[in-house]
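Lecture notes, unit on protein representations.

Consider one protein chain, 375 amino acids long.
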Amino acid sequence: MEDKWSRAVRHVERFVHAARKVTLCIDGWSRQGLSASYIGSSVCFFDKEAHVARHFMLSLTTIKHPHTAENIADCISRCLEQWQIPAGKVMMTVTDSGSNMVKAMKVLKGQSETVAGSAQPGSGTESDDDDAVESSEDADLMDDEDLPVADVRLLHMRCMAHSLQLIAKIPIKHYDHIITKARSIVSRIRRSSVAVEKLIELCGKCVLTDNSTRWNSTYQMLQRLLELKTPVCEVLLALQVDSLMVTEWAKLEEVADLLQPFVNLTNILQTDSTSLSSVIPSILDLEAHLQSQPPNVALARNMLQDMQHRFETILNPSSECFNPLCAASCLLDPTVAVTMLLPEIKSLLEAAKQYIIAEVGTGYWVSLLTCVLNN
């Protein structure tokens, strides 16, 4: 087993060391009853030899209480040191929206900047490479080895799917009383073998239960309940159990309509095949969905405000913690690049352009943009 483990580690090391840039993904969770807590670290990157995206789990370590930002940052630092990944190689870190995770990224960034700032002048630092690139705007397409390495910035992005889930909780909390009543009806049916058998006989399906850990399960419960409304009412009548009132059914339809696009995009964005370029189009689609709701639906306005606040670091270049990677990815993806040409996000287009130029140089930027436009 030790030999197999060593071979597996060397195999992963070869891929990770060959990568020009990596994205670091961090997540933490606890056992039931809080008997133990863990921090997991993984990397994803583009393999330029095989032309595929790769994703490797690097470490799963126990973290002791308290789960402070400093302790989390220390776990991550040890992981990077163990795998010999310099901070300058980390293009971006992705975490959930927990306050300790967000602060840990700031702590880690501060540590990395301190180490980077200690480099001696004239020793072939990254800024020397940048100057060389800037002096040759009309250079031909460069090899990967010639591309400039950006300063250590450790850009941070909160998990898109997790952020959408937090926004989707707003209508669930708003309609908590009705959803609780719907949950009670579902539970009552599923506890009765007679009711379950009758429901399946009528429509070939059964109601679904939700749970506290499975994302979107509440929406799935409501959607199935609405789908089986007529047979459910018939079964409840046979059980002599009160069904929902007409206004309550209408409220369930309202919350389901609000949540449906969030559920669909969450499922898409959680897959390994989805690129970072899909983030901005997804956010704009959800904004359009919420803005299309009737003016008297205050809940939609609250959700829109919350979404704009949560994704400010992605959509607002003037934000203190603005992350240009999503905009740059969108601009360089021919399938969604047209999104960046919308007049209302002109400043975002300029920010994406400047980031790409800073990363790869003007000559490389012109070649990339030409390829995008030709496709």
